[in-house]
Amino acid sequence: MPLHLGLTGGIGSGKSTVAAMLVGQGAVLVDTDAIAHGLTAPQGEAMPALVREFGPEIAAADGAMDRDRMRALAFTDTSARRRLESILHPMIGDAARRQADAAGERAVVFDVPLLAASSHWRQRVHRILVVDCAEDTQIRRVMQRSGWAEDQVRRVIAQQTPRAARRAIADDVIFNDDVSLDGLRKHVQDLWAHWSSLPAVPASTL
């Protein structure tokens, strides 16, 4: 059975860059954030259920989920976050499974920001790769790329799984502080070579 790799990391860690490098090595990427965006886009599969649950104001003028409104609601109301997850997570899981099945014999990378908090996702992968960096690095990167204020970035980080908890579930960790792109690519290539040298995974593992 081909390798199923779980990839996770906090905001600003460089996880998406590592994901792209793994695709460059031949893996198929299953991006759960991208799936979630598709489900909540205009005419997205999740939109009718979201409107029923949260009211028509949760939809923006174009029919997509109003992300700013939903983010503010989820950050201030834990029950709203659970209700959102109860709608999206099963749909995301089904779509991810279909994409992985379509990969055939190629390795699959599941990019899952909430992997550390989900035993379901951990049971679906053979190995877990965590991309980690200092919180100050996360803040600097997100402010530079998104223009967010520092307190906004800190609030998002506070809502995410703590770094130590992510590292605790990892089979491999990339520490992405002050690493050049070439250095990061070399690290990814070395890990890929290591994984390729491991015994084949029995189909009954997952």
Give the topology.
Layout (H helix, E strand, L loop, with lengths): L3 E6 L5 H10 L3 E4 H8 L7 H8 L12 H10 L1 H25 L5 E4 L7 H4 L4 E6 L2 H12 L3 H10 L3 H6 L3 E4 L5 H17 L9
Parallel strand pairs: 1-3, 1-4, 2-3, 4-5
Helix pairs in contact: 2-5, 3-5, 4-5, 7-8
Question: What does the model show?
Answer:
The protein has 206 residues and is an alpha/beta fold. It is 53% helix and 12% strand. The chain has ten helices and five strands, in the order βαβααααβαβαααβα. Helix 2 crosses helix 5 (78-102) and helix 7 packs across helix 8 (150-159). The radius of gyration is 18 Å and the shape is globular. The N and C termini lie close together (10 Å).
Nutshell version of this structure?
It contains ten helices and five strands, in the order E-H-E-H-H-H-H-E-H-E-H-H-H-E-H. With 206 residues, it is an alpha/beta fold.
Count of individual beta strands: 5
> Which regions contain 5 or more consecutive residues with pLDDT less than 50?
none
- Report Rg: 18 Å
State the end-to-end CA separation: 10 Å
Q: In sequence order, what are the helices and strands, one letter per element?
A: EHEHHHHEHEHHHEH
What is the approximate shape?
Answer: globular
Helix content: 40-55%
Mean model confidence by pLDDT: 93
Q: If strands are numbered along the chain, what order do they take across the biggest sheet? A: 2-3-1-4-5
Number of helices: 10
Helical/strand content category = alpha/beta
DSSP strand content = 5-15%
Largest sheet: 5 strands, parallel
